[in-house]
Specification:
517 residues; globular; alpha+beta; single chain; seven-stranded mixed β-sheet; FAD/NAD(P)-binding domain; D-Amino Acid Oxidase, Chain A, domain 2
Length: 517
């Protein structure tokens, strides 16, 4: 076919590169005659960031789409189950201040105004009243039984994983099963067609590697979209202040200790700390604003958290610092080049937003893969519109956590409350939500990164109190909500009795595997 898209070249490995390669290769039969040809080029000397250890439930469908075994994935990536996030000291900074953002929808979410009913139970956290899942997390229960097949769930779940091991796992699958060509080499130049399209990547050892579509997964360097094409970023430092992170890997002091089935995010005076349980260790890190605190003070904050949560002094090694430049590209797909992962943008690792954007990008590129160069411009326009919207909604959702906090103990929290730091669309939504809960009308896209239920969990978990409407509505009938609260409580009791412990389930997977269907 003249102008047909047959050769795809991906620059960069890591999670973004290999996950994108796997989705494309599986969907477009790269291992079969007549399928697309996929080449992934990565420098053998460039290390990946490797700290994106939390995921969104979409990762289950993404991995299943590539044809891997969930048992193999859990075993080889040191992975554990994730059923949501627990936020500690975000509301007012007290030790007892905590709430959940679980992954299951509230019971009866589309049938009644649960918020109206919750207002009569304000001594009970919203998430624990409307959902059974926070109770499973508190009890350390797994989201599935021994007999539950791969990818299936009793309670909706995502994963905690070792990002470096995930990249290696997907590389083996891509090269060994899916027919992806791997070129470990340095790119020393870029060759262009007369029309400005990229023609080939010039490598040190393998020479020119030609392609019809180039996917930039080169991380924050953005060698193709950023450096070659000069596509700049939409800066976000005035909205999301966190621009630094320090990460640590902490072994379990007691190898038999239960593994947390949720990401634990603990706010501090100038940012927050993530705490993620894997099978063999915890991934712990501090995110902070360099305009409000020093690297040394942030490292001390992390050090104190590790010791306070069972870590041992001798297990705390070097604490590498990671620079964050909050923002995203003004354009994600330019000519025959599209950016995925950190090359497209990055905000902060709250709510696993980085990896889910990789998944959505890989999925849309694969689903909409143009047959010809002529059709590529149409797909690029749609892709750019979709991801400008998605990045914007991620910014809104992340900022919501800070805006709703009642903390005012430092300049960091006070500055987060300033109106000029709050996106206009989020301000509008908060005005609407004074009298009605977040709904599908506020977030109308088919593939919203965070659905309206997620906004409700954060809004009311943070203690937001809606104001009464001047007139009554049938949907606000408290009796309807009460029935769903009872359903959630009944489900919690049954599941607590029937589900194994999280570590017990992971050990079963390690030794015996899960049924396959």
């Amino acid at each position: 076919m003249p102008g047909g898209i047959q050769d795809i070249v991906i620059l960069g490995g890591g999670t973004a590169g290999w996950l994108t390669a796997a989705v494309l290769a599986a969907d477009h039969e790269a291992a079969a005659p007549g399928g697309v040809r996929i080449t992934l080029v990565e420098s053998p000397d460039v290390r990946t960031v490797g700290v994106g250890e939390g995921t969104w439930p979409t990762m289950r469908d993404t991995l299943r789409r590539t044809g891997v075994s969930e048992t193999d994935f859990l075993r080889e990536c040191d992975a554990a189950f994730k059923q949501g996030s627990k936020f500690v000291r975000w509301r007012d900074g007290r030790d007892e201040d905590s709430y959940y953002h679980p992954f299951v929808l509230p019971q009866g979410f589309l049938d009644a105004n649960l918020v109206a009913g919750w207002l009569a139970h304000q001594d009970v956290p919203f998430g624990k009243l409307v959902s059974f899942q926070p109770h499973l997390c508190d009890a350390g229960k797994a989201p599935k039984q021994f007999s539950t097949p791969e990818w299936a769930a009793v309670a909706n779940y995502a994963y905690h994983l070792d990002a470096g091991k995930l990249g290696e796992f997907m590389r083996r699958h891509c090269v060994g099963t899916l027919g992806v060509r791997h070129v470990p080499d340095h790119v020393v130049g870029i060759e262009s067609h007369d029309n400005g399209d990229i023609a080939a990547l010039r490598t040190r050892e393998q020479g020119a590697i030609a392609g019809d579509l180039f996917i930039d997964c080169s991380g924050t360097r953005a060698l193709l979209l950023g450096q070659h094409y000069g596509i700049g970023q939409v800066p976000l430092a005035h909205v999301l202040f966190n621009d630094r992170a320090i990460a640590a890997q902490v072994p379990y002091a007691d190898p038999s200790a239960e593994i947390a089935c949720q990401t634990i995010s603990t706010a501090h005076g100038n940012g927050w700390i993530w705490d993620i349980g894997l099978q063999s260790r915890r991934g712990v890190g501090v995110v902070y604003s360099s305009a409000h605190t020093s690297d040394e003070a942030a490292a001390d904050e992390l050090h104190r958290h590790i010791l306070a949560t069972g870590g041992r002094e001798q297990d705390i090694g070097a604490l590498p610092k990671i620079a964050i430049q909050p923002g995203y590209r003004k354009t994600f797909w330019h000519r025959n080049c599209v950016a995925v992962g950190l090359s497209s943008g990055f905000m902060e690792p709250l709510e696993a937003s980085s990896l889910v954007l990789v998944e959505l990008a890989a999925g849309m590129i694969s689903d909409q893969l143009p047959a010809t160069r002529e059709a590529m411009d149409i797909v690029a326009t749609r892709f750019n519109e979709a991801f400008l919207y998605r990045f914007g909604r991620v910014v809104d959702f992340l900022k919501l956590h800070y805006v709703l906090s009642r903390r005012a103990d430092t300049d960091y929290w006070r500055d987060n409350h300033r109106a000029e730091s709050i996106p206009e669309r989020l301000q509008e939504q908060l005005s609407l939500w004074r009298h009605q809960p977040p709904s599908r009308y506020d977030l109308p896209r088919v593939e919203e990164v965070f659905p309206s239920a997620s906004y409700q969990y954060i809004l009311y978990g943070m203690g937001f109190r809606p104001e009464p409407r001047p007139t009554a509505r049938h949907a606000d009938d408290v009796r309807r909500a009460e029935g769903h609260f009872q359903e959630a409580a009944d489900l919690a009791r049954r599941m607590l009795a029937a589900l194994p412990g999280h570590r017990e389930m992971l050990e079963h997977v390690r030794t015996r595997g899960m049924p396959r269907i």
